[in-house]
Amino acid sequence: MSEPRLLTQFPPSVRIENLTLLPNGTIVVCNAYTGDLYSINPLSHTIVATASNFSWEEGLVEPGSNVVHHITLTEAGAKIKAFPIPPAAWLNGLTPVPHSPHYLLVADCAAGSLLRLDTRTGCVETVSSDPLFAPISKPESNLLLGINGVHARDGWLYFTNTNQGLYGRLAITPEGLAVGAPAEIIARGLNGSTFDDFALRRDGVAFLATGLGNLNGIEKITARGEGQMLVSWEYGSLAISQPVSAVFGQTIKERSTLYFATAGSYLSSNATSTGGQVFSLKVKC
């Protein structure tokens, strides 16, 4: 496995929260401070992103501010369709339902619930508020981070819970509803690491960004729950500061390339703060 290769370094004013790859290889990331999207080699395509009026200093989301944005990127500019979700506490992860792509499953990390949005009608309903989705307050942080990253595949909703430090799954129907069985834990973080978003490989192996615990790094977890820290750095490192999201390349040539984004350090808490970053990492295991 190669060392991570830095692709983009943003200024301290940009705190990256998530990234996605378009089929043509374009990387799109969002700024948690402003909700702005940035693209690397931008070309026309459609993506989906979430946004809230969120203050990282206070750890609060303004009531009624949660929105799912459907964004079409064209050469003429971005076309945005907004789906307000007023009851939500803090929207975080998002995934389409594979065989019903008009349904989106959205993680409310502060409320500890999974929502389903119908993009045809704008209707929202709660799929589950399983105990494994719930946030647990931590004395060292004022952020309520329960269910976070989510991916739907093969009848399962795979998810992370940041404050509980776990990776798990919930059985779902082809329409994205819970079948009624409780969620189950696949694995807990190694050495106290906590999970943010993650990439799910075709063979069911997950590669999770671990940037809020004792380690900055990428942790690999098999479908059987076997964990391995692939790469790691000391917490607070400015070289690679707080991985938050990961995704595999879209083309056959790049299926072994893992792209991951880092948040950067907090502006007010570090005199030598750094902005968000985007890296690539060759994974052959």
UniProtKB/TrEMBL annotation:
Superkingdom of origin organism: Eukaryota
InterPro entries, per the entry: 6-blade_b-propeller_TolB-like (IPR011042), Hetero-Diels-Alderase-like (IPR052998)
Lineage of origin: Eukaryota, Fungi, Dikarya, Ascomycota, Pezizomycotina
Protein name, as recorded: SMP-30/Gluconolactonase/LRE-like region domain-containing protein
Organism: Fusarium falciforme
